[in-house]
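Ligand: zinc ion. Inputs:
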Amino acid sequence: MLESRMLGNQHVRFGWGQSEKEQLMIPLGIQPSGSKNYRNLAGCLPNLQERRDAYRLVGKSITYYDQANQLPEIKEIREEYREIHSQVLQDVLRKADKAFKSFFTRCQRGATPGYPRYKGRGQYESFTYPQVGFSLTHDNQVCLSKIGSIKVKLHRPLEGKVKTCTIKREGEHWYVVLTALVEAEKLPTSDEAVGIDLGLLHFATLSDGSTLENPRYYRQAEKRLQKHQQSLSRKKRGSHRRRKAVKKVAQTHRKVRNQRQDFLHKESRKLVNTYGTIVFEELAPSHMSRRPKPKPDETGKYLPNGAAAKAGLNKSIVDAGWGQFQQYCVSKAANAGRQVLFVNPKSTSQVCSGCGTVKKKTLEERWHSCECGTELDRDHNAALNILRLGRSRQASA
Ligand SMILES: [Zn+2]
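Predicted complex:
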């Protein structure tokens, strides 16, 4: 199962077996009943405390069911819990249970995991109505049990059967996230195939020679982020101004991440709609992480590994999103009944797409020129090689 999320009043689809899961994230201008319910929710987390104590005393965990069974009693004692829908409480317990289960599993494997953290107010960022307790009315109100109705703006109705409703906070913004299951839409089969070279200069170069460019706002946001980060570094630890600066940095990151996801969703949708087969290079793990890790050589010294070459770009922003892009293509293609192939990236930029001879190039050489008469952009040449490798894979299958 592949997951993805997008902010704004937008539909997001992601693969879930045969049917698709569609998610609608609606920004809320107001906080649900101030932040009282939210506080209440954070307040129900002493249940986590209880489990920790049990673990310390007898070295064993209380189960989700133990705690869920206690909910009515807990509600008797703690009035504020009565204001929270029981399914929401159960969801909180379920999340805590998951955290504890993985904690114990890691213990059994002999690892030393971090103890599940008590999440105080401000840390718990969402709560979910897993089945009931919420409804969507015809006049565009989301009614949440024990919280009330919130007017929302839907740009188009959510298709399919609504399964869950999550209230989510990102920074200072609140969202309602509705998840629905819809039948997957198969696209007609297509013989059109494309090879795609992913890069830093162009986000992607297609085997037809066209390119997908990184949106311009990356650069703008990059500058803004740099400014905010510098300002943050000048602030005194623990100060009010520092807290404000931290918020600004987080805001910028969030904005860029959302814009990037938006860009990746749109472009992957176009590709899947156009081509029956999409061929990518397999990404090296270092390309998927935010920053390439330094690799020690035999003598223990660190070798350059391209980190410096990429230093001109703020990786936290550009982070290219290649892995995510491939993932979006895979899930959209799976739902549409189309194909995404991955080929070995070895020497795709060195081999001539015209005659197959190897033309060694440094990273700086942007042009591929061969005695056979093939003259083209380095990345275009690579994209053609990627397509060829994909086609030969298809032929041999
Ligand atoms: Zn050639």
